[in-house]
Amino acid sequence: MRRLLAALAVALGTTLSGAPLLGARTVAAQRPHVEITLPPAGALATAPPAVRTIAVLVAGRTPELVRNGFPARLHYRLERWAAGTFVNDVKATSEWEVIVEYDALAKTYRVVRATPQSAVVIGEYGTITDADAKVAEPFDAPIAPPRRGEKSYYALTLTVEAMSLSDLDEVRRWLRGELRPAVRGHRNPGTAAAAGVRTLFVRILGGERVEYKATTGVFRP
User: Which helix or strand (DSSP H or E) is residue 160 part of?
Assistant: First the structure.
């Protein structure tokens, strides 16, 4: 998680290299959900699954919150389970995040994807619908596939919540070593109080913590 935060903080100050989008209106018309697609049968032991995030950014009050200074945080947790006769075991896990924030001066939506290894600004878009379409593109999950012959399945949880710019500032302060007590679990009471006020304000605006889940069927490479 520390490496994920570090990569995210670096990416929030980088310049962009993005590509044009297609099908934004089509994506926006769908119900919000996540999907996991397995690789072709011959690549199940060598390639990861692809994750798609459909219409999540345009659901509910999220567009309003983002435009009013509360970036959307999409936190992904993917687990690979071994499917046994009596007991199923988690064999691998992977976490990454997508942050979408609105630049009021440029009137654009910036999309950042952060993994424990790196963070990349994947685009800046004129509407949140276009940003949502970009997030909906298939993403190869950073997780190790199972060994050949191992019965497995993947389970994905996506948590969507609003974050304030002060949350991003905390990431940068953590990198400078100013929040070490908080990282160890001894958060400064003032910081905790401020976070509580922010959470209350977001809830008053209608922001909620929403979870989306998806699983694959059992497969054997």
Answer: strand 152-162
Q: Which DSSP symbol is given to 137?
A: S
Alpha carbon separation from 201 to 70, 103, 166, 205 (Å, rounded): 10, 21, 14, 6
Residue with tokens 């379409």: 133
The one-letter code for the residue type at 104 is A
Q: What are 82's two structure tokens?
A: 């071994």
Domain extents in the chain? 2-215
Could you list the pLDDT tens digit for every one of the 221 residues in the chain? Answer: 555 555 555 445 543 333 333 344 444 457 999 999 999 999 999 999 999 999 999 998 899 989 988 889 999 999 999 987 667 789 999 999 999 999 999 999 999 998 877 778 899 999 999 999 999 999 999 999 999 999 999 999 999 988 766 666 665 565 455 544 333 334 443 444 445 545 555 554 455 689 999 999 999 99
Whether 130 and 28 have beta carbons less than 8 Å apart is answered as no
Q: Which residues contact 196 (CB under 8 A, 6 or more apart)?
A: none
Whether the pTM exceeds 0.85: the reply is: no
In this structure, are residues 136 and 127 in contact, taking their beta carbons and an 8 Å threshold?
Answer: no
Element spanning 80, H or E: strand 72-82
Please state, as a whole number, how many other Cβ atoms lie within 10 Å of the Cβ of residue 99: 22
Structure tokens at 189: 């009471």
